[in-house]
């Protein structure tokens, strides 16, 4: 009886209550918390985030290529929590949305009026047999993990010859361009080190083409061809055997379904593009769809089942590519729609599906891909499909600054306004007005 009473008391009076609870203190969570900490009274916003270090993940590509240090991509979470918001350093293990409540590791409950779920996507090296162990052995690395990204650069600098394989998984992945970016930078370094002729570079992807967005396929095929990279499509890495330095790929059919056929390739260097899934607590929650990602309206970003809950970032089931660039547009939508919800009105602003992937194709050139599911959504009037130095400078200098000073502080809402202006300039140019 006492236990039941305790349970009831715990349910009715959770230790903490927030007007807005944000789950996850990554790009999306910090951006959302910053926006609403400015709007709501002090102490109304709580952020649940377990990690002490916050990483600027888009910088990992440069770290793995020796073009940025890991330190430059890392800041202490406590320095980034917006003033007026409270950081709860823990993780959510259970969502109980029928009671507007989450449970933390350790059993503490926290309740909310509104919630933003911004838990990102988890790296699932464990889905590839032997991958977790292999990452601790020579030759195997991944720019995706802060613990193995510097190893990639070391491996490239020590590489003497053999197969250098870069893989892309069969399923969701954050920054779908990152595995091939790593491959291209490696090519540049090996050429600089004058050992490129000893290398057979393979880009093995589960997709049926080099990149998912049609408009960038030809430019990227050209890059791969010029660099003599062996692009193998419909190949899904399923096993790594470190005793034989062998990577096993399952061959996929035209619909992307697994076949019985496999291919084994010996590696000297193996860079893993890991499959990603929604974090466990989200996967098993009432917010998840069949895939485990958060089921939201892909326009308003509101939970399809619980209207006082919204999503932001990689953890949602929206069809956009999972990028920090998308988060900027999510935040713009969230800002308006969550405010409307708090005012008791129906959210109606729509996310435009924007995503971007600065495809680093060498140590100083970038193809600046910007798109949504309808095709390209480029911001500048310049030719973004051509590898360019200006785009590399944006990737190396402008984008990190935008992230630290704009996105996570809730000031950067994506380039839609700039795009409108630049299109105006462009159309005037074409008409000969300017
Ligand atoms: C190698 C690499 C290269 C990339 N390159 C680019 C690029 O060039 N351009 C670009 O735009 N994007 C790029 N990205 C993608 C970009 O980093 C992500 O899309 C972005 O960080 C997503 O933001 P998010 O807030 O959804 O998730 P994250 O920033 O990953 O944050 C999620 C947070 O949720 C927390 N969390 C997870 N589970 C729980 C829990 N149970 N309870 C509480 N908190 C939890 C995590 O600790 C984490 O801090 C790249 C990513 C990688 C890995």
From TrEMBL:
GO molecular function: FAD binding; glutathione-dependent sulfide quinone oxidoreductase activity; quinone binding; sulfide:quinone oxidoreductase activity
TM region positions: none
One Pfam family per UniProt: Pyr_redox_2
Catalytically driven reaction(s): a quinone + hydrogen sulfide + glutathione + H(+) = S-sulfanylglutathione + a quinol; ubiquinone-10 + hydrogen sulfide + glutathione + H(+) = S-sulfanylglutathione + ubiquinol-10; ubiquinone-10 + hydrogen sulfide + sulfite + 2 H(+) = ubiquinol-10 + thiosulfate
The EC number(s) this enzyme carries: 1.8.5.8
Residues covered by the FAD/NAD(P)-binding domain: 19-133
Top-rank taxon: Eukaryota
SUPFAM superfamilies recorded: FAD/NAD(P)-binding domain
Cofactor list: FAD
Family: Belongs to the SQRD family.
Protein's name according to its UniProt entry: Sulfide:quinone oxidoreductase, mitochondrial
Organism: Caenorhabditis briggsae
């Amino acid at each position: 009886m006492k236990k039941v009473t305790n349970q009831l008391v715990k349910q009715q009076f959770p230790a903490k209550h927030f007007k807005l609870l944000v789950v996850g203190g990554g790009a999306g969570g910090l951006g959302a918390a910053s926006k609403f900490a400015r709007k709501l009274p002090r102490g109304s916003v709580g952020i649940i985030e377990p990690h002490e270090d916050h990483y600027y993940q888009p910088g990992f590509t440069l770290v793995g290529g020796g073009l940025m240090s890991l330190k430059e991509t890392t800041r202490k979470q406590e320095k980034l929590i917006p003033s007026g918001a409270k950081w709860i350093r823990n993780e959510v293990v259970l969502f109980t949305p029928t009671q507007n409540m989450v449970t933390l590791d350790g059993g503490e409950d926290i309740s909310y009026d509104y919630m933003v779920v911004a838990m990102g996507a988890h790296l699932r090296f464990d889905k590839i047999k032997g991958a977790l162990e292999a990452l601790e052995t020579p030759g195997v690395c991944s720019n995706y993990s802060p613990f193995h990204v510097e190893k990639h650069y070391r491996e490239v600098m020590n590489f003497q010859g053999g197969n250098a394989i870069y893989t892309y998984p069969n399923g969701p992945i954050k920054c779908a361009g990152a595995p091939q970016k790593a491959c291209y930078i490696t090519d540049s370094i090996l050429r600089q080190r004058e050992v490129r002729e000893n290398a057979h570079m393979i880009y093995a992807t589960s997709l049926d083409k080099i990149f998912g967005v049609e408009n960038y396929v030809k430019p990227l095929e050209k890059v791969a061809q010029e660099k003599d990279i062996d692009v193998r499509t419909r190949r899904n890495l399923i096993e790594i055997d470190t005793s034989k330095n062998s990577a096993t790929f399952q061959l996929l059919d035209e619909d992307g379904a697994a076949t019985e056929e496999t291919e084994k390739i010996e590696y000297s260097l193996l860079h893993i593009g890991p499959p990603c899934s929604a974090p466990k607590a989200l996967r098993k929650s009432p917010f998840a769809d069949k895939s485990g990602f958060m089921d939201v309206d892909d326009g308003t970003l509101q939970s399809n089942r619980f209207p006082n809950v919204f999503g932001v970032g990689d953890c949602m089931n929206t069809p956009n590519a999972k990028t920090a660039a998308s988060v900027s547009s999510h935040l713009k939508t969230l800002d308006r729609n969550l405010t409307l919800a708090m005012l008791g009105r129906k959210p109606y602003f729509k996310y435009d599906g924007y995503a971007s992937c600065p495809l680093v194709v060498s140590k100083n050139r970038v193809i600046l891909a910007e798109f949504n599911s309808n095709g390209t959504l480029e911001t500048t009037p310049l030719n973004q499909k051509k590898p360019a130095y200006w785009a590399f400078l944006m990737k190396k200098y402008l984008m990190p600054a935008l992230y630290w000073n704009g996105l996570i502080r809730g000031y950067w809402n994506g380039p839609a306004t700039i795009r409108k202006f630049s299109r105006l300039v462009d159309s005037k140019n074409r008409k000969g007005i300017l």
